[in-house]
Amino acid sequence: xxxRDIARYALLTALALTLSWLESLVPIPGAPPGVxxxxxxxxxxxxxxxxxxxxxxxxxxxRALLAAAMFGNMYSLAYSLAGAAVSLAVMLGLKRTGxxxxxxxSAAGGAGHNIGQILVAMAALRSGYAAGYLPVLLxxxxxxxxxxxxxxxxxxxxxxx
Length: 161
Hints:
Elements: H1 3-25, H2 41-50, H3 53-71, H4 74-97, H5 102-125, H6 134-158
């Protein structure tokens, strides 16, 4: 890996972590538990469209690990990693078809993130009852994914690394 590539990767990872931290400081009034904007995913979307799937996965993984170490715990790490893995798999699959815009890819990624989190909750609780919360999370996840996709589309068009 070239020094320039390492610098890009580090920059996007730092941006993802910073956005995640800022998001943790600003609660969404009236939002149900677990609902977040997913601002850190802006860096992952950018990496996916500008650098490639491996770099996007790396940014998402390192962000999840650092965020859990800095302001989370092992449970938050499990939820974050599962959400990131499902989200990335969904986004990669849709992007590869060439039939979806960055907005659609990001919206589906938001839904995928919530599905991954619910799967962890079901395993942790050893119960399927957590799945009852999925509709709430899907609405918020798709909405957040649309917002991140809009921002990601603008940034991806304008910023060259």
